[in-house]
Amino acid sequence: MKKYLMAIGGSLVLILGACGAEEEEPVDEEAPQEAPEEEEQAGETHEGAGEDIYQGNCASCHGGDLEGGSGPALAGEGFSEDEVLDAIENGRPGMPADIVEGEEAEQVSAG
């Protein structure tokens, strides 16, 4: 009986696996392949790049809308771009230095 059930189960697996398989389109190796377009060219940034970097690296402490959290609120506090850049580069009590660096740090500090 055990062998019978295993045979049925194995058959179902094979049948269901074959039904779910998708056919891939054949690739014409002789046709020229187009390179995917990049959203940004080297050295260019899209509008909101600083916001994207902030959300990925800073929002967990300073809040998604700069309202604060475990880190201080930044909204309406009147921090200058240079003060924010200095804090990013050199850290503050409870904040490590260089969470983001270089051009990304400049984009975040610019707003």
How would you explain this protein's 3D organization?
With 111 residues, the protein is mainly α. Helices cover 46% and strands 0% of the residues. The chain is built from 5 helices and no strands. It has helices at residues 2-20, 49-57, 59-62, 81-90, 102-110. Helix 2 crosses helix 5 and helix 4 packs antiparallel against helix 5. The longest helix is centred in the first third of the chain and has 19 residues, at 2-20. The protein is elongated and about 75 Å long. It starts with a helix and ends with a helix. Residues 38-46 have low confidence and may be disordered.
Largest sheet: none
Distance between the termini: 70 Å
Helix content: 40-55%
As a whole number of angstroms, the C-alpha radius of gyration is: 27 Å
Number of strands: 0
Taken from the alpha-carbon principal axes, the silhouette is: elongated
Structural features:
mainly alpha, 111 residues
Describe how the helices and strands are arranged:
Blueprint lengths: L1 H19 L28 H9 L1 H4 L18 H10 L11 H9 L1
Helix pairs in contact: 2-5, 4-5
Provide a compact summary of the structure.
The chain is an all-alpha fold and 111 residues long. The protein contains 5 helices and no strands.
